[in-house]
Amino acid sequence: MALLDLVAAERHRFADLIDSLTPEQLDTPSLCGEWTVRQVAGHVVAPFATRRSWFLPLLLHSRFSLHRANAELARMVARRPVAELTGELRRNARNPFAPPVVGQLGQLTDLQVHAQDVRRPLGLAYALDPEPARTSLDFLVSRRSVAFGPRRLRGGLRFATTDLDWAWGDGPEVRGTAEAIMMALTGRTVVLPELTGDGAAVLRKRSAR
């Protein structure tokens, strides 16, 4: 499948997930910093639900911190009704939006990781689809994956998935499902107990720094 086809499928899947949740679930803390599940949805939809003119005042208010400005933007968008958020995401499923540097590979990875940021705290088991998972894993171990996780986490280790034919790197091995490896590479420490191999202890030590 073309990359945009994969992104579109993940946008639809994320919208379906958010639509299926109760108000209580939407207000549950996610794995993504201080955001609730609803605010994670706001972040995912933000590229299509905001105006460029909004960002400069937020940036000024955040003392030119892109991280804080993006976080506040997600909270602003999340105040909209859920049906508006998911409707916006479905309408823009094939929008070719590509952030600087990370491009559509970043979009694909962002969607998969944030879906797990939502699912895991809610106890909603979900296996990633093989093709987008493999594509995102290749991206996460590339130089383009800036802002998705510190490179120090993966250096000198070999990562191997137990449910996909995918492996990368040299050194002590870290084994786990594609989902657990992806979440570990993006700094989600909650998955570390699920990883095995000689490199798992090394990764846990690095993640604790």
Compile the SSE list and pairings.
Elements: H1 3-19, H2 23-26, H3 37-49, H4 52-61, H5 66-78, H6 82-91, H7 103-122, H8 130-140, E1 158-161, E2 167-169, E3 173-176, H9 178-185, H10 200-207
Parallel strand pairs: 1-3
Antiparallel strand pairs: 1-2
Helix pairs in contact: 1-6, 1-7, 3-5, 3-6, 3-7, 4-5, 7-8, 8-9
Polypeptide structure, described:
It is built from 10 helices and 3 strands; from the N terminus they run H-H-H-H-H-H-H-H-E-E-E-H-H. It has helices at 3-19, 23-26, 37-49, 52-61, 66-78, 82-91, 103-122, 130-140, 178-185, 200-207; strands spanning 158-161, 167-169, 173-176. Helix 3 (37-49) crosses helix 6 (82-91), helix 3 packs antiparallel against helix 7 and helix 8 packs parallel to helix 9 (178-185). The model has no long low-confidence stretch (mean pLDDT 90).
Describe the structure concisely for a colleague.
This protein has 209 residues and is mainly α.
Number of H- or I-type helical stretches = 10
Give the overall shape: globular
Strand order of the largest sheet: 2-1-3
Helix percentage range: 40-55%
Largest sheet: 3 strands, mixed
| Average residue-wise pLDDT | 90
Return Rg in Å: 17 Å
* Secondary-structure element series: HHHHHHHHEEEHH
Question: Count the strands?
Answer: 3
Beta-strand fraction estimate: 5-15%
In the predicted model, the low-confidence regions spanning at least 5 consecutive residues are none
Distance between the termini: 39 Å
